[in-house]
TrEMBL record:
It comes from Cohnella yongneupensis. PANTHER family: LEUCINE ZIPPER PROTEIN 4, SPORE GERMINATION PROTEIN. The chain crosses the membrane at residues 274-293, 313-334, 341-360, 366-384, 396-420. Residues 460-479 are annotated as: Disordered. Residues 470-479 have a biased composition (Basic residues). Belongs to the GerABKA family. Keywords: Membrane, Transmembrane, Transmembrane helix. This is Spore germination protein. It comes from the Bacteria.
Length: 479
């Protein structure tokens, strides 16, 4: 709808449109014999910016054109009333002058955001101490400071019919695969939803395997980690209102990588990475293995160990499957309690609750000593993974593994891991394989272990980057 040259008609339109809005304001001014009206939401604008960059210049030069007087960068003109109304919701001021049909949209929105702080969910021993915040523009600023190149591309989308959430897609043009960018653009453009709350919404709306428990997008709050993946040809997605960004496409092995791996010597980084992969199998299969060897296959263990195991469960009232399930559920309850409560109370509940419950259930002959040790080791193995999403998936997968082991013994556990492997091999992210077994040295040297930096001459082939060459002559100083 186009505005009328009558200032009263335009004022009537906006007052009718925002009649129920308690913070909507209109201010009428007479400057140099000309009538002006400002429309705005007083909770969204910075009044000092209005005074300094709009009103003061108009008072000094009332006869000049508005575009020549207003000294503000975020300046646009429109002849559509609905566009001006939507702009006000984003913190803009709409200025009209009597006798003109042009609407001047001026950006003076109030900036309220927390300061850039240290990462709280991805703490590392070495590396950057900056973390993303809820303001998407600040997050883009952090990334542009880390990547000073014209090849660094930022595309913005507006998702959510009601929320109008700003989503930013970032990638390196000379490295990223164009097919991935096109496919991601197609999926984002097809999203039709009322509101987008966080990158988790985008994750579920663009992922391929809707019912898989394995995470298909990597979540990070660290700008330096996001930059590292951008340099491998991946894409980073951030949204307004969330300090988390998501990285696509990623492989199964990406969830075992930590920023610390590249800040320490490569032998240590390799050992820690292999340890995390081993803990993946421990967290899923250790309780199931305990039940299997206790009920089905005790002959697989040394006789001394079998005697110790049998003596520990001799007076226990429940079968091994009930032991394992009760202790694993108790571990989940303690974990949720420590997360949801305030930090000092949560830490106390975690320590005291673990000690008290562990001691009482053993003394009451409800659970064996061995089961308490296995539960503790299983929990620690799941927490060692750098990705919270993968850690949660591992804990959930341990339950079906436990049930199959209680039914078929070690055969059931082997069948479960075979089904997991088949499922992973069938998965794709953005059209690229999610799980590629690292059978060759070239595939394994930055997946199963961390090879020296000077040997990582090629970028990972999993996402088919347009430029695979990372290093040409890394040690040219040596002759």
């Amino acid at each position: 709808m186009k505005p009328s040259s009558s200032i009263e008609a335009t004022e009537y339109y906006f007052k009718q449109l925002f009649a129920d809005q308690g913070d909507f304001q209109s201010k009428q001014l007479i400057i140099g014999g000309k009538e002006y009206i400002l429309f705005y939401f007083d909770t969204l604008i910075d009044s000092s910016l209005v005074q300094e960059f709009i009103l003061s210049p108009l008072l000094l030069r009332p006869q000049d054109a508005v575009r020549d007087v207003v000294s503000i960068l975020d300046y646009t003109e429109t002849d559509q009333l609905n566009e001006a109304g939507e702009a006000m919701i984003f913190g803009k001021v709409v200025l009209i002058r009597n006798g003109e049909s042009t609407l001047y949209v001026l950006g003076v929105d109030l900036k309220k955001e927390r300061s850039i702080n240290i990462p709280t969910k991805e703490r590392v021993l070495r590396g950057s101490n900056e973390a993303f915040i809820e303001n998407i523009d600040t997050n883009i600023n952090l990334m542009r400071k880390l990547i000073n190149s014209t090849d660094f591309i930022v595309k913005t989308y507006t998702l959510g019919r009601l929320s109008q959430t700003k989503v930013a897609v970032m990638y390196i043009k000379s490295i990223a695969n164009a097919t991935i960018i096109e496919e991601l653009d197609r999926r984002l453009q097809s999203i039709d939803i009322d509101y987008v709350e966080s990158p988790g919404f985008v994750d579920e709306l663009i992922r391929e395997k809707k019912f898989s428990m394995f995470p298909q997008l990597l979540v990070t709050e660290r700008p330096d980690r996001a930059r590292a993946y951008l340099m491998e040809g991946k894409v980073v997605i951030g949204s307004a209102g969330s300090p988390d960004t998501i990285i696509i496409p990623v492989s199964f092995w990406s969830f075992f990588h930590s920023s610390d791996d590249y800040q320490i010597s490569w032998p240590l980084g390799s050992v820690f990475r292999i340890l995390r992969i081993c803990c993946f199998f421990i967290a899923i299969g250790l309780p199931a293995f305990y039940v299997a060897v206790n009920d089905f296959n005790p002959q697989l263990l040394p006789i001394n160990f079998v005697n110790t195991l049998q003596s520990s469960v001799k007076h226990v009232a429940f079968p091994p499957i009930a032991e394992a399930l009760s202790m694993m559920i108790m571990l989940e309850i303690l974990r949720e309690a420590t997360i949801r409560l305030a930090s000092p109370i949560g830490q106390t509940i975690g320590v005291v609750g673990g000690i008290v419950i562990g001691t009482v259930v053993v003394q009451s002959n409800l659970v064996s000593n061995t089961m308490v040790i296995i539960t503790a080791l299983t929990g620690l193995a799941s927490f060692i993974m750098p990705s919270y999403e993968m850690s949660s998936a591992v804990r959930l997968l341990s339950y079906p593994a436990l049930l199959l082991a209680s039914w078929l013994g070690l055969l059931g556990l082997a069948f479960f891991f075979m089904m997991i492997c088949i499922h992973l091999c069938q998965m794709h992210t953005m059209g690229f394989p999610y799980f590629t077994p690292p059978f060759s040295f070239g595939d394994a040297k930055d997946t199963l272990f961390r090879a020296p930096i000077w040997s990582l001459r090629k970028r990972p082939a999993g996402t088919a980057p347009s430029n695979r060459t990372r290093l040409s002559h890394p040690r040219s100083w040596k002759r």
